[in-house]
Amino acid sequence: MTRSTTVVVGASVAGVRVAQTLRRRGHDGPVILLEREPGNPYDKPALSKTVLVQDELPSALGTATELAEENIDFRAGTAVDGLDLVARQILIHGEEPVPFAQLVITTGSRPRRLSQFDGLRGVHYLRTRTDAAALRAAFIRGGRVVVIGGGFIGGEVAASARSLGLPVTIVEAAPRLLARLMPTEVSEVVAGLHRDHGVKVICGRTVTGYRGGSDIEAIELDDGTVLPTGIVVIGIGTVPDTAWLEGSGLRIDNGILCGPNLAAEATDGVFVAGDVARWHDPTTGFYDRAEHWTSARDQAAVVAHNLIADGPPKHFATDGYVWSDQFGVSIQHVGRTGPGLRTERRPTKVGRGQLFVHLSGGHVVGATTFDAPSDLLAVRRDLASR
Ligand SMILES: Cc1cc2nc3c(=O)[nH]c(=O)nc-3n(C[C@H](O)[C@H](O)[C@H](O)COP(=O)(O)OP(=O)(O)OC[C@H]3O[C@@H](n4cnc5c(N)ncnc54)[C@H](O)[C@@H]3O)c2cc1C
Hints:
Layout: E1 6-9, H1 13-24, E2 31-34, H2 50-53, H3 64-69, E3 72-75, E4 82-84, E5 89-91, E6 98-99, E7 102-105, E8 109-111, E9 123-124, H4 129-141, E10 145-148, H5 152-163, E11 168-172, H6 184-196, E12 200-203, E13 207-212, E14 216-221, E15 226-228, E16 231-234, E17 238-240, E18 256-258, E19 270-272, E20 277-281, E21 286-288, H7 293-308, E22 322-326, E23 329-335, E24 342-346, E25 354-360, E26 363-370, H8 373-385
Parallel strand pairs: 1-2, 1-7, 2-3, 7-19, 9-16, 10-11, 10-16, 11-12, 18-20
Antiparallel strand pairs: 4-5, 5-6, 8-17, 13-14, 14-15, 20-21, 22-23, 23-26, 24-25, 25-26
Helix pairs in contact: 1-7
Bound molecules: flavin-adenine dinucleotide.
């Protein structure tokens, strides 16, 4: 190791972008990029969309050859087991520790599990390309699909299954779809979209059990409903991938706690980006964690800057942009939603699609659009200009 070795753990959008940005900004110290999965790094958003519907691979974030050409030492199939902050080493079972001068943690998140379904055939989670391939194979074989969880990923999986002609039911414990993220007005449009395409949407019901032996045969709900199914997809959110950091001394509480500059708290030269980061937002006084592609990309840029630039560190700020595609409808969101805000439907500029604005004290603080990208962009620009 030279004194300047930067190790990045996790090669998805955040990790790859950090490594590439360091190089593109002229950093010439050694950069080692460690990744648990084999193969080339890839992007995840297509996994619940086109990858399930067509014979399509997720888009690569760079091949091993391209990364090597940028002098990034990419090591696929390397699951990191631990972090020794005192010796400044990354620990890998059965291998020599990897020393670092600077460390970037970009290990993302993994699906929250329903342990009662562990080991049952026909039950799926969706996070990796292997998960997507298994789910697509199940869709091709056919059968009734039950999606547990009515968030963005659940909605996308349901739309993909339905577009392949499969009977689909979404079961959501909250009283409406997207309840954690969106106001009622938006949830209703999304639920309507699904119902219009033949998806059965059941909200306000929890899963209490299942029927079947080693294969899933049916899902039982708390009102006694039994939903026969051979394919269950569980999409009930994610948890930050921090198990490997247990005992490391890092401050972890639903993500790695870091400052607005994305430096891990109480450390020196350790940065965090992407789904695993829970940063302190000085404008609200709270910690926040995002599970969106754009945040991961933007955090990577901030971290790369703060690793190499002289002068004051950059702070991460987000406009909360997120997108989803369901039944060919482009859903986009920017800004805030939440308690105390009012949502209003407004006419769109080009007459098609739908625009909802979210208001605080009469001021637009966010917007959600359905097939109205120019309206979304207008609000996004307006928010950025304030
Ligand atoms: C199916 C799906 C659809 C999505 N669709 C959208 C969308 O439409 N819009 C949107 O905004 N966002 C979407 N997202 C979310 C978006 O993809 C994530 O926010 C983004 O991938 C986060 O990137 P990341 O680099 O922080 O972490 P991740 O993408 O989670 O990657 C973390 C990487 O770290 C590796 N890793 C973890 N632990 C270790 C370890 N111990 N050792 C070595 N490597 C390790 C993992 O293998 C993984 O490659 C979607 C996510 C999924 C799963």
